[in-house]
Design brief:
It is a single chain. The chain folds into two domains: 101 residues, no CATH class; 105 residues, no CATH class. It is an alpha+beta fold. Strands 1, 2, 3, 4, 5 and 6 form a six-stranded antiparallel sheet that branches. Helix 1 packs antiparallel against helix 3, helix 3 runs antiparallel to helix 4 and helix 4 packs antiparallel against helix 5. It starts with 6 loop residues before the first strand and ends with a helix.
């Protein structure tokens, strides 16, 4: 598969000065409308939003980024990796979006997980991405999945306290652990009779955001060899 890269340079600042982002469209993309994911592999950040795919990398990783994009789409399949220029030149077409059945949704989640696992070679980071996806797909059990994510990162550093110091996490690990351990949420510990109080939507959303932030810090630590 031969693709010309369409490069979009992010705004210049200290953090993104050297980054390059390659944008693609998965064609045909109807089956990808409900899919989204974000992860790091071989130093490149992959973002999938429906049929739109981007790969962010350092300038010396252009070849790696192209290989990652091709391998990921091959694993997701079936689809063609199309540069934005080619997609923009195509004639307009009607797009019909229909809801997915529960069986199709389950299949979508499985293919997303399998495709990601096929190219992320860091075992614990791969596991963390799985728990993040599970927390999103299964909100009723999200705190359990997030706690397992914290345990996975803690195992890398010999415990949660050491992980918190190594990642300079700003209290995220302690906050997530405390939330998951609350008995009244009936997640990791049994509540007193009649004392069950499920976590509210806002607190759950905050925990999921914290989990994402923690994984980002873990990604950075891995990249830095910490």
């Amino acid at each position: 598969m031969h693709c010309r890269h369409v490069v979009k340079k992010p705004p210049l600042n200290q953090k993104t000065l050297r980054k390059m982002i390659f944008h693609y469209v998965l064609w045909p993309g109807d089956d990808f409308a409900a899919l989204s994911d974000e992860f790091v592999v071989r130093g490149c950040r992959v973002r999938l939003m429906g049929s739109s795919l981007s790969v962010e990398c350092e300038p010396d990783q252009v070849t790696v980024a192209a290989t990652v994009a091709k391998e990921y789409v091959l694993a997701l399949g079936p689809a063609r990796l199309m540069p934005l220029e080619e997609y923009a030149a195509m004639p307009a077409r009607a797009v019909i979006i229909r809801g997915r059945t529960s069986r199709e949704t389950s299949h979508d989640r499985a293919r997303l997980k399998e495709a990601r696992r096929s190219i992320v070679d860091h075992a614990r980071l791969r596991q963390c991405y799985d728990y993040l996806q599970s927390a999103t797909d299964d909100p009723e059990q999200a705190l359990i999945h997030i706690y397992k994510l914290v345990e996975t990162i803690g195992a890398e550093y010999g415990g949660k306290k050491k992980a918190a110091r190594a990642l300079d996490d700003g209290g995220v690990i302690k906050r997530l652990t405390t939330q998951a351990n609350k008995p009244d949420h009936d997640e990791r510990h049994a509540p007193d009779p009649g004392a069950t109080r499920p976590i509210d939507a806002a607190s759950l959303a905050a925990s999921v955001r914290d989990a994402h932030d923690l994984v980002r810090k873990y990604e950075q630590a891995i990249a830095a060899g910490r």
